[in-house]
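Dear support,

I submitted the protein below through the web form. The confirmation email said the job was done, but the results page showed an empty box. After a refresh the structure appeared. I'm attaching both so you can tell me whether what I see now is the final result or a partial one.
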Amino acid sequence: MVRIVSIIVAILLFCYIVFVSFFFRESRQKDLCRDLQVVVVDSLDKHFVSESDLVSLLKNADLNPIKKPMNEINTDRIENELLKNEMIARVEAYKTPSGMIKLEVEQKIPILRVISPRGNYYVDNLGSTMPVSRRYVAHVPVVSGYVEKELAVTDLYKFALFLQENDFWNNQIEQIYVHPDNEVELVPRVGNHRIVLGSLAGYEEKLDNLRLFYEKAIPKVGWEKYGIINLKYKDQIVCTKR
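What the results page shows now:
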């Protein structure tokens, strides 16, 4: 009888150990990150970064959260690491109740492309620079010539914002050329002429005058009459015939 009781106790003890081991193993597995979900929210419009790019960045920084304990995953570190990528404007990383890490990423919005001996880059809508991508080209006005970065992220940035917010000029101005003295010429999409803007000071008034000239004079003389339209002198438009 004593032997039978000992056997039963041993069996129950074994079953208890197996149950406890299984329970704690399952509990530990539930506490691990089971997946990483990356959403590039503006990926239909821009293709500067992809999900695989972001995962690679995290792996290289040893921040890939998959199979790591949820309580050891630092979402702030993940956000800061991804923001080192100059193509990214915003990152939000958070934990879900189902044991996942979710990333929502927004890319920068380029408004100007600079191609000059001083550099080849974009200027974004917040006035910072971003590198050129091999996989995607943004269709924005191109600036060439003698373009210092300081000019690109200040006066040219403000000018590009103006173009972006003005449908008429955004459709009309295709290229911008900067001379060594920082005077500017514009190349329009419509019309075989150059627009001498001069300095960027007072560009809104200058372009208002040019638009009035387009509306009043061009229908009478045609787009091909003038080779140069000069706006650099205050309240004047000086035209040079082709």
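Response: this is the final, complete result; the empty box was a page-load delay. Residues 110-241 form a domain with the Rossmann fold fold (CATH 3.40.50.11690).
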